[in-house]
Amino acid sequence: MNTQDELVLSDLSRDGEPGWRPFSDRVMGGISQEQASLTTIEGRRCVRLQGEVRLENNGGFIQLALDLQTRGAPLDACTYTGVRLLVWGNGEEYLVHLRTRDTRLPWQLYRAPFVAGAIWQTLDLPFDAFRPERLAQPLERRSLTRLGVVAYGRRFLADVAVARVALYG
Description:
By secondary structure, the chain is mostly beta strands. The protein has strands at residues 6-11, 20-24, 33-41, 44-53, 61-67, 82-89, 93-100, 109-115, 121-126, 131-133, 144-152, 156-168.
């Protein structure tokens, strides 16, 4: 991994406050329960999302979100290839959601799946792997506003941790 071709968005080994915000489908009437904590797992400082994803009341997600805007301006990621995560988890499939200036409604986003195994692993998700959800246009890398790590779409117990997020070239 060549760190010269990276733009670090969150690195909990060196950052003070993580900047991550948890929320769930309860903002839309669902009943999923989330808990986020700043912790250490296997010697790595991380933000950990745990909870139960429930489908009742049109629910079905819990999420950690990271704002990518600086002074209200979106992040321009045109010179990068994708998102690099350092993650740990319980072997379940999760999603990375990207939002842009074009994603005005809550259900509009771009998503790519990943599996978070029980050991720390670095995963590269190329921007080409992100699929639009309820949008016709492809991902506009010039206008990224938020990144989310999401447990979604089925009833299960979520347990995923993120130690670092970067864009890679």
